[in-house]
Design goal:
With about 260 residues, this protein is α+β, with helices and mostly antiparallel strands. The protein has two domains: about 5-95, Winged helix-like DNA-binding domain superfamily/Winged helix DNA-binding domain (Arc Repressor Mutant, subunit A, Orthogonal Bundle), CATH 1.10.10.10; about 100-255, 3-Layer(aba) Sandwich (Chorismate lyase), CATH 3.40.1410.10. The chain is about 25% helix and about 35% strand. The strands form four sheets. Strands 6-7-8-11-10-9 form a six-stranded antiparallel sheet. A two-stranded antiparallel ribbon has the order 1-2. Strands 3-4 form a two-stranded antiparallel sheet. The chain is elongated and about 65 Å long.
Length: about 260
């Protein structure tokens, strides 16, 4: 184990640190991937915290005795993953940590955001009544003519857009639901308090996507950024009472599942 002596002008809180990882040029692993792993480790351990500047290409090249082209490749990949972001003329900075979403049980967006020490919020775009139509009717197991409430929202954490969400609710179960209610309180709280809903279970599926121009504009990220499509089916007894499709920022969420070994 060796120590790396950092140059005094580097943007680290700790100037000298014993490290477990170093660039091994004879390992066969691509050098840029090794650098990504090292920087990821330092970010995860909060040696470099969210919002702090990381060393420049030249500085990283000097520290690890690798070419600037290799450093540039590693930084580009970290930017693509949303782990760091670049400010023109100032350098690269560590992004805010992703919200760690546990998928081991029923959860609400607001509760999970609060667990991360952030303030949840909603920006209600619309609440309309319409016929379900063929696509939604099929997903909800109802006729194409059955009325549904369609709720469109942007979900926020500390005022920052996290996901664009469209929720479909059977109208007959939620007669009287108003847009003003949803700006003050979470949907699940309203469902329980106002409508006496007793949730039985929910099913979720998710898959990666690339955000188009409209989705990127809503979420305030560049078009072509990575995203996640999340679909949720929520049941009361054996009856579906919610179908939600969300477009989630890929740079802000990390999903985690606990696998029991039986």
């Amino acid at each position: 184990m060796r120590k790396i002596e950092y140059l005094p002008h580097l943007h680290y809180n700790i100037l000298e640190r014993e490290v477990e990882m170093e660039i091994k040029k004879d390992s066969g692993a691509p050098l840029y991937l090794q650098l990504i792993e090292i920087l990821n480790d330092r970010i995860e351990s909060e040696e470099i915290r969210s919002g702090e500047k990381i060393p420049s290409e030249r500085e990283l090249s000097e520290i690890y005795s690798i070419s600037r082209a290799t450093v540039r490749q590693a930084l580009s990949e970290l930017q693509r993953q949303g782990i760091i972001y670049k400010i023109q003329g100032k350098g690269n900075f560590v992004s805010q940590k992703r919200i760690n979403q546990e998928l081991n049980g029923f959860y609400s967006f607001g509760d999970e955001v609060q667990k991360q020490g952030k303030k949840p919020g909603n920006r209600v775009l619309s609440l309309v009544l319409k016929e379900s139509g063929q696509a939604v009717g099929k997903k909800m197991g109802i006729s194409n003519e059955e009325k549904v409430l369609v709720l469109s929202r942007i979900r926020l954490a500390d005022g920052e857009a996290m996901m664009n969400e469209i929720t479909y609710l059977p109208f007959e179960r939620f007669i009287g639901l108003e847009e003003s209610d949803l700006e003050e309180e979470g949907l699940y709280q309203i469902m329980k308090k106002k409508y006496g809903v007793k949730f039985s279970y929910a099913e979720e599926s998710f898959y990666p996507c690339i955000l188009n121009d409209v989705e990127a504009d809503i979420l305030n990220v560049p078009s072509g950024s990575p995203g996640i499509v999340l679909e949720r089916y929520t049941y009361e007894g054996n009856k579906l009472i919610e179908y939600t499709k969300s477009i989630v920022r890929g740079d802000k969420f990390k999903y985690k599942v606990k696998l029991d070994i039986r």
